[in-house]
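Kindly go through the following sequence and its backbone structure tokens. Advise at your convenience whether the structure tokens fit the sequence:

___
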Amino acid sequence: KLPDEACVFLHVDSRQKEYVPQPEIDFNPNEMMLPEKFCGTNHLHVFTSLSNERYQFGYVVYNPNSFDFILYATFTNIITNAIASTYELSALSSKKDALESESYTDELTGIFNRRGLAVYGQNSINQSLVMHDGGLVIFADMDDLKVINDTFGHESGDEAIKAEVKILRDAFRTSDIIARFGGDEFVIIAPKMTMDYFKQRCARIDEMSRRWNEKSGKKFTLSISLGAVEFSSGKSDLTELIAEADKAQYEVKKEHHKRKRAAN
């Protein structure tokens, strides 16, 4: 079966003293098996499929001369096997990359999971320090997710998590690494970010959450507590930084609870 689109990938003219690469030529094999410019005066063209048991990769065309046809068949088999091997290796590599990507990604939110954070988060810190830059490790914990799950069900809890992740993505830079650390916990690696800039981000996240609560039409509301710690050449272990940022976040969460109790 011929495709609607194909291209001449390689053309060799034995009359030339040396091979000169030619630009690829697109054509429709259903209209003409070979572009007219390659037909020449010799009207005998042999078309041989480049295929194996599973795939058809294309076809090779040649003008036979004094060589035995077995040489052309051998040449065609060599090309087919080379293409097939490359194709299989490429497919395996793509499958491996996809599986690795899945193993580093949180299924619900699409951001990094804990495993992805361990790999890419530490790499991000190390690369920043090589460039003599500092930055922040931020720990974020959603407020009252358990209440949402218990009151409105886990489906609403999942909605809340996905909505919060969108807010975090919008609030932080594309160069920052955002990972889901636990059920309602997140870690952000923010190279070059200062504490002053972090406070601005927190204010923006509070405002974005407030707007979401007003417009979502959901019975539950979003709120999140964030704490941060600076990393440097003397303090670069991700596990230790996360633990310290979590402590800072806990102090913020206590303040959130105090304000809620006062408001009630």
